[in-house]
């Protein structure tokens, strides 16, 4: 089966493996969630901030998120590189994808009730440091806001990803292989491109009345975006993609 590799920049996007990349197919998860025996809390580090999972006692059998929050079963960390090399625990990347196993009742904006737009069973990618980690039996979960979810993985190819809210999926332009003087550039010396073509757009942000505001760009637009914004992906054919908020777009090119 074809796979799609991820790499992180700015706010990360998916389960990373060698050089910060992993496959979308690896994010596919079983639909069942077991709640049982508590285990010692695990710690993850973000600079000097220590984040430990909250362990749910065995007497609790369900966890129902409230308001606009969702419960995501986290994909396990990659234990091997794509070449089959076993990774030590310290080298395993923190996963950023999983399966939605429960959703809140939504929220009220003005006089309007707004439901969660993500369905139970959806495979999603979320912001790297979002949410609160909860350990249920042998499985790690995240309770996070709907807006922290970057997109829904509808197929095994990132080009078919469905961005959420005010986010857009962009196919990144090819980096230049030569300098203006004809000097060949290596992969490490190529300048990072900040131009691309919009592949898909989210439904737009919610306004003060709870209605969706359409985005100012559409699929097919060529855009200039902030150089270090968003979350990067690699498609099955090696094509580079990025998902970012529409506020990170600087101009439409024509």
From TrEMBL:
HAMAP family recorded: CH10
Q: Which domain of life is it from?
A: Eukaryota
Q: What Pfam families would the database entry show?
A: Cpn10 (PF00166)
Alphabetically sorted, this entry's keywords are:
Chaperone
Q: Enumerate the InterPro entries for this protein.
A: Chaperonin_GroES (IPR020818), Chaperonin_GroES_sf (IPR037124), Chaprnonin_Cpn10_CS (IPR018369), Cpn20 (IPR017416), GroES-like_sf (IPR011032)
The Gene Ontology CC terms held by the record are: chloroplast; mitochondrion
Cited CDD domains: cpn10 (cd00320)
Report the sequence similarity comment from the record: Belongs to the GroES chaperonin family.
Enumerate the Gene3D superfamilies for this protein: GroES chaperonin (2.30.33.40)
Give the protein's recorded name.
Answer: 20 kDa chaperonin, chloroplastic
Q: Name one GO molecular function term.
A: protein folding chaperone
